[in-house]
Structure formats: C-alpha cells, structure tokens
C-alpha cells in the first residue's frame, strides 16, 4: 500500500502540472497490478484548497468539480481510508518535539504519523524532504517532480 500526498492528487488532476502525465500513468499502472493507495481526509481537504486556488493555477478547478474529484478518490476501490487516531496524534506530537519542528511542519507531520500508525511504509509525494526526517517511509520516485534544469 502506498500513501498518497496532496501533491500527487494535484498532479494527477491538473493538466498544467509538470508531472501530470507521469503521475497518471503510474497510478494506472499500480492500480492495474492490484496495488492499493492509502488516503487520509487531510489530503483531500488540502487538495480542495489547492486545486481551486487561482493564484496557484492558470486553470484551477471549480469547487464543484474539485468536490467530484475528491469524492472519486475517496470512493475508489483501490483506496484504503486512513484516519488520524489517538496513537497517531501522540506520535505527531513526539516527532514535532524530537525534531524541533516549527508550525509549518505540523500538517505534514500529522499526515506522516497517520500513515505510519496505519502501517503505510511507502509514500508518493513530490516533496520527500518533508517526510524523510521521520525515517519510516520509502518514497515512490515516479511521484517526485524533477528540478528544472538550468541552462549554461
């Protein structure tokens, strides 16, 4: 089972994302092999916030369309629902304390603890550095957005 971060859903759903096609192909490939994806409500909440933001995208989704896509993901047979628990909350607070993380790291830390508490060991994210500090995940390379190459 592979935990999904918001960045993957955004890339999958918005054509203007640089990794749109790559992410779509890899999601389809894994679902055809019977691989399941872990998904937290937190990811879908952030997804709704991001894909409807006209400051981030030239062609953001309308809220109605974003809700349809969020419901599609939540109800997909390949998706396992992962909810925060007392255990994941304690783990998140411990990680924030242990690694001296600031306020901008709270949501990713809570997502990481939710997935880890549910036994998720692989994570699909465009931002592996946000989760690497915890040392509990392998990262799916197909989900990472390559750095733009610089011209010399």
One letter per element, helices H and strands E, the order comes to EHHEHHEHHEE
Structural class by secondary-structure content: alpha/beta
Q: Please name the CATH architecture.
A: 3-Layer(aba) Sandwich
How are the strands ordered across the major sheet? 3-2-1-4-5
CATH class membership: Alpha Beta
CATH topology: Rossmann fold
Query: Quick one: biggest sheet?
Result: 5 strands, parallel
What does this structure look like?
By secondary structure, the protein is an alpha/beta fold. It has one domain (2-143): 3-Layer(aba) Sandwich (Rossmann fold). The chain is built from 6 helices and 5 strands. The protein has a 5-stranded parallel beta sheet. The longest helix has 13 residues, at 20-32. It is globular, with a radius of gyration of 15 Å.
Features:
6 helices, 152 residues, alpha/beta, Rossmann fold
Summarize the structure.
The chain is an alpha/beta fold and 152 residues long. It contains six helices and five strands. The chain has a single domain, classed as 5'-nuclease (Rossmann fold, 3-Layer(aba) Sandwich).
